[in-house]
Structures are given as structure tokens and as C-alpha cells.
Amino acid sequence: MGDNGNTGLGAPELASDERLREVAAGAATLAQGAHGDGVRALQEALGAVGHPATVDGAFGPKTHAAVAALQAAERLPPTGVVDAATLAALDRRLAARRTPSLREAMARAAGLSPDQVAALGRTPHAVQASSAPSRHDVDHFTDASALPQVVPGAVPDPDAPPPSVDSVEARPAARALGALAPDRRARVDEVRRALGGDAPALAALDRLLAAGRLHAGPLLPSLAAMAGVRRDGRLVIEGGIDPHLVLAQAIRHVDNPLRVRQGVGRGTCGAGTMEYVLLRLDPAELVRILDGITRGAGEVALRSGRALRMPRNAIPRDASGRVDIDRLLQSALMNHATAMSWIFDYDNPEDDDSFWAALGGDTRVPLGNFTSLFQDIMGGSYTSVSSLLRSGASVAEDVARAVDRGERVPALLKWREGYHWVAVEKIERGADGVARSAILRNPWGWDKCQGPPPRAPVPEGGGRFRMKYADLAEHIHGATLKG
User: Fold this and answer.
1) Which of 224, 92, 94, 62 is nearest to 166 (CA)?
2) How confident is the model at residue 16 (pLDDT cuts 50, 70, 90)?
3) Hey, which CATH number is domain 258-483, 3.90.70.10, 2.60.40.10, 3.40.50.300, 3.40.50.720?
4) What are the CA-CA distances from residue 294 to residues 194, 314, 324 (Å)?
5) CA end-to-end distance (rounded Å), the chain
6) Which residues contact 20 (CB under 8 A, 6 or more apart)?
């Protein structure tokens, strides 16, 4: 795979031309006056996606107009000049036309013939799926516009996704990174092909590439490994999950970790916080874990050597509002963290594990269990600190020091009438060095900041909020710290 030497083009009619590969790499453009096979391939592709031009290999006014029409449709500057962003948009549109039917995809993923899958569709327990993305894979941040006025001086998320790869701001940064090494270029091609016509995921992949996050390190190899392996057929048959969605959702989560959601009516705040912190600290490991639990065996070895297994009942979609990978991973984490998981498995439909539900009336991840699981996943040594043994001010001081060192600290806060896991992301200090406030993230994925503890939302939404440091010290119940 990737033997065309292109820089991410998935359409063979584009990837086979050397001039178009140079355009895709940002090393050239095509404009009026150009001639050759690359222009002919461009003209044919434009016609295929509904912007016809005369197919003669000469870049004239009609081709210029067709390119400008495509750019306008893609919300790009309508210059009529083909650059890397324009070619990537054209490539995505071609890929979308080739997306196989869901029945064919289901057959491939499950190792069945299309007729066998059709027969399954007539059974009473069949999943009625469509070729559209997951019904939980859209509209993640519609709540942001309705948030109340934030406190003055709120800061943007320092880890927010970079500008769009098509934007003017991103181009100098992308050029400064240089070309991908040939082996990495081939892996990007493999991931791109596996995504098919999933435009949001392809755009997220482009942003990761533009930001240099795929140029080195284990993230790209982890994504390529996921792209090259068939998913567990039960995901399709029992969950209606199109085969590419696990990879697509993983890429979009890596691009923007604020997509992670605990889910409505689910006591999975600890698992949601763990998923979010792992995305922030080690996204390649999160991809590796997701890859493992969604393969046929349904399990993966963690860094501690222990196995993380996905409960079978986590596969069918529920009413929690989570995307598929949130449901699958959080259920696996809840199951692993259960004190008696060798007897009582976590039950996603009922959101309980029987043992803790019997003791406390609900499902929860106790502080010690959370720390043990976090250590299994992250490797190294982690410890629990609790206000049961020390003052809240002392626990908050430990958390603040860890955050100042660059850690994202999972913290258990006294929340309304109970407890709630959140991630502490930043400590804001005054000119005298004294901690004044903290930025935290609620795994709900949104927070209108009503009810105790006192807090206020920050502009980017996605569940991030600010609270006074004194209130953090008053409401903190425990935390998991490195070392």
C-alpha cells in the first residue's frame, strides 16, 4: 500500500500522476496555461464530482471556472488555482462516491456474503443501520452557544485543534514541517483509504498532518495498525457500526479530545475522565487500546500486563448520547475497575456492575480502583491522595504541583449530593505566585455550571470550566497522582 508515493491522495486517478502528487505535497500548483496528463486527470475528476470541464489536458477558462466552483462549494478561496487544499477536497469527494454500500461493508467485516447479511437483516434482532455516520457522531458542541456569560479573562484551550489545514494560518506551519518520510507517507495513505469518504475524519487527519503530529512518534503507526485490521464482526451485526467508524471516531477524538463524553444517565465519569486524560497525555496508547478491544478477541494487554476486555453488552448502541468508541472504551474501563469484576461484569445497558450497585445503589469507580486502573493503563507508579486522611487544602496543593509539572490530574470532587470525576488541567496563579483559580474539564462534555461546586464555564465549551482555587480545596475529595 502507498506504492504510488503520494502524500495522502486516495483516488488512483489523482495519485498516479506525478504532477498532482507534487501539488498534494504543497510543492506545486496548477493554474491556467498548464498542460499534460495531470490536467486531464484533474478535468476528469472535476466532472465526476459535478463540476464539469472540457477533458483535453489544457487548463483553460472552463477548467478555471470548474475549480473555482469546487473551491466555493468547499468553502475555500475561489481562486481557480489548484493547490494542496483544493486537491485534497477533490480527493475526498471522489472517495465519497466510491464508499461501498453498508451491506458490502458489513459482509467484509463479518466475513459473510452480502446475501447472508441480508438474511440477518430479516431476523427479529437485526440492527437497522444506514450508511450514514453513527447517530451519536454529530452535534457535540451545540450547547456552547447557550452557555451563560463566562467570567472575564477566560483563556482558550491551549490544546485546541490547530487551524484547518486549508486555512492561510496553517500553510506556513505545514510547509515548515517538510515532507513525510516515505514509510510514513504510505501509512497516511493506508489510513486515508480506510476512512473512505468520511469527510469529518479525513479533515481531522489533515489537521493532524498539518500540525506535525504524524511526522514522528507512535501515533501514526497505531492508526495505520487499526486501519489495516478487520474489526470484530459483532460490532456490525449487533451494533450497526460501519467498519470504518471506530478508526474515524478515534482520529476525530485525537484531533479534539473535547469530543469525549460520559453519556447521559451513565455513572461513567471516572472512565470518561480517564479516556480524556489518556487522549491528552498519550493518544497513541488510546488508539492501540481501542484497536485491541474492537478486534475479534475483544481484549488488549495493558502496559501492566493485565488484559482489558470489552463487555459484550457494550456493543449495542444505547440512549446515552455517546459516540461508539466512548461507549465501548468506557464500558471496558468500568468493567476492569470493578472490585469484583471476575464475578460481576459491568452491565452497560443497566449501567451497573451488580456488586457496587448492590452496596451503594449505583455504579461508581472508587478512588483506589481508579488509581489502580490508571496505573495499569499509563504504566509507572501512581498513588491516591484523599481528603479523608488529609485536609482538602493539602490535597489541592499536591494537585497544583502536579499540574504545574505538566500533568493532567484526575480528581474526585464533592459534587451536588455525591462525587464526580473531573480532569484538572491548569492552575492560574497571580503575580505573587499564589494559586487563584483552576481550569477543569467535566466528562459530561458540557457544563452550564449550575449547582455546587461554584464554577463558571470557559468560552470553548466542551465541558471545560473555571473555579476558584479556594473552592477546589474545599470540594476536592481525592485525586490520582504520578509517583
Assistant:
1) 92
2) confident
3) 3.90.70.10
4) 16, 11, 11
5) 43
6) 9, 14, 30, 38, 41, 42, 87
User: In this structure, are strands 464-468 and 435-441 parallel, antiparallel, or unpaired?
Assistant: antiparallel
Are 14 and 32 a contacting pair, CB within 8 Å?
no
For residue 33, what is its C-alpha cell? 496555461
Alpha-carbon distances, residue 8 vs 13, 80, 209 (angstroms): 13, 22, 10
Q: Which residue has the cell 461484569?
A: 345
- Beta partners for 300? 308
- Superfamily of domain 12-97 in CATH is PGBD-like superfamily/PGBD (1.10.101.10)
> Ranked by mean pLDDT, which of 128-142, 240-254, 282-296, 354-368 comes out on top?
282-296
Give the C-alpha separation, 219 to 89, whole Å: 24
- Whether the pTM exceeds 0.85: the reply is no
pLDDT in tens, 209-227: 988 899 999 999 999 999 9
The C-alpha cell that represents 194 in the structure block: 480506510
Q: Which of 243, 169, 234 is nearest to 201 (CA)?
A: 243
Extents of the domains making up the chain: 12-97, 102-131+161-255, 258-483
Residue 384 neighbours by CB under 8 Å, 6+ apart: 367, 368, 370, 371, 478, 479, 480, 481
Q: How far apart are CA 132 and CA 345, in angstroms?
A: 32
| 401 in Cβ contact with 370 (< 8 Å) | no
- Between CA 199 and CA 458 the distance in angstroms is 29
Rounded Cα distance between 465 and 347, Å, is 31
Residue type, 275: E
Instruction: Please give the Cα distance from 20 to 9 (Å, whole number).
Output: 9
The amino acid that residue 472 corresponds to is L
Residue type, 220: L
